[in-house]
Amino acid sequence: MINLLIADNHPITRKGLEVLFSASPNINIVGSVDDGEAILEFVKKNPVDIILTETDFPKLNGLTVLRYLKNDYPDIKTIIFSAQPEEVYAINAIKAGAAGYLNKSVNVITINEAIMKVHDGGIYLSNDLTQQLAFGSRVNKGGAFYKKLSTRESEVLKLLTIGKKNKEISKELDINEKTVSTYKARLMRKLKVTNLVDLVNQAKLTQEL
User: Which of 14, 99, 140, 150 is at 20 to 30 A from 87, Cα to Cα?
Assistant: First the structure.
């Protein structure tokens, strides 16, 4: 039996997944939480095999949680379940320690397949993205840009785009404010902008390409 933890900041999504897997013969829902901090608190006290989680949390974003889990709970496997485009975020999620990436548009059969594959030691990505990686091609220009970012740069950019300040980012990522400023400068250089407003707007535009 696979012990699955669901993490999403939308109650309807969490409840829907609980209902979907309630009759599963091989998946046991051991818990349901609504932010990144709650994930870390839960795994300290409960046995978890796989976490199915969103990335956009108000407390402790998903990529940061992945880093903590990779270091402190290497036996727990994580599948990102997000509405964000796979070609933009999947590669950096895998780099950060995820074992799979699912878009929220998939059906329950695909979710179940991903959980079983990850439990068996595999990495789950969609067929489209797997083929793009295999042939070294990028259909999505935004994805091409994001592939060039380090995991930490992706974390900083994600937090900047949701309005976090340098001090908040330094606290969440456990780095000093000067380091945050350095990452911000790198991102501005890569996105060819000169101020924070343009950086955020350009990042959002890149995601939509």
Answer: 14
What domains sit in the chain, N to C, each tagged with a CATH number? Answer: 2-135 (3.40.50.2300), 149-208 (1.10.10.10)
Q: Kindly report, residue by residue over 10-55, the tens digit of the pLDDT.
A: 999 999 999 988 888 899 999 999 999 999 999 999 999 999 999 8
The C-alpha atoms of residue 145 and residue 99 are separated, in whole angstroms, by 22
Give me the DSSP letters along 104-147: TTS-HHHHHHHHHHHHTT--B--HHHHHHHHHT--S-HHHHHHH
129 CB-near residues (< 8 Å, 6+ apart): 86, 87, 90, 101
Do residues 73 and 3 make contact, with C-beta atoms less than 8 angstroms apart?
no
Q: What is the model's pLDDT at position 206?
A: 57
CA–CA separation, 170 and 14 (whole Å)? 29
